[in-house]
């Protein structure tokens, strides 16, 4: 028989078994141990397991040859059933807890009948958890079954405090909607840049100055997240009902009469009904609108936008111009979530022409570096990206053979240089190189 119980909030597993009785055939005993093995193997290795059972065996005194699974303080000599207990402990990497604590024989004997005194009831635990057990002994004078005495074990478990996830405090960028906040932000940023209006060319420096100025001028949020509620379908009727329910709740909190309670409960039921009705009506209106010509136009417009955003550029790309950046900033919506740099589009709109100049310079430098990156692709990175993209190994080896021991010369006005090794970058003029470069960039 077995029972698995979670212990408190730690989700540790307590296993309780009743072992084989006296007079059982060897085949039945082996079946018991086989079933116990299956139960143990079904438990994840990381879970704590404690087995308490009457195994009807003597593991004996001393632990020569079995030091890893038992201590020296057993009772009498080992018999066949006791050897089965020890073998089980070895198979499952467990320890016989009773035998590790030096006690008087009175506190080790678990079975007494007439003149017979022996140890047949054991507590086992995983060897890795043995350090958590501080004591194990027999309680004299207490019996849980006829002729069997109670075995107690003291186990100290570390209570792991649940780490509270730190909520990141966010800069109140939304204040840039106000013209006075926007003007103050521009002035403070100009002061931080030593009076210059032009932003530095270095991205890291510029981004850090912008973030620091934003925190000082606009402030930061407390970090507490507001509960997200779906409210797009709310109407005035729902809002009025919710407000009346809140007032009724305050009234009941101040004066706990049955009349106030009934009034609050009635408003609570009414609000639930009105919310359900308003939500259903909003969805019905949405579906009805989608069936109209205007709704179809909206769907097609969204589909065209997504299709345009997902297309690759097929022609040569010239340097980015000022009017393109201005147009892009104008089209970008405010109030969107920030990216990894923690700088929203409101900042660039607020900074005006200075932001346009900085963004043009940065974007064009990125394009120039991308052109040079074609010749700087590390070979090991190329093999890794090909395998990561699912390219068959035989094709990876073919490309490796193409790049192995590659050499080249440089032609100049006075002739050619001597050959030298090319150990980085992609082959120039190869039809395969653009495909390999795209794999690395992806």
UniProtKB/TrEMBL annotation:
Classification via InterPro entries: Endo/exonu/phosph_ase_sf, RT_dom
Residue ranges the record marks as coiled coil: 247-274
Keyword terms of this UniProt record: Coiled coil
Domain Reverse transcriptase: 370-442
Domain of life: Eukaryota
Gene3D superfamilies xrefs: Endonuclease/exonuclease/phosphatase
Name of the protein in its database record: Reverse transcriptase domain-containing protein
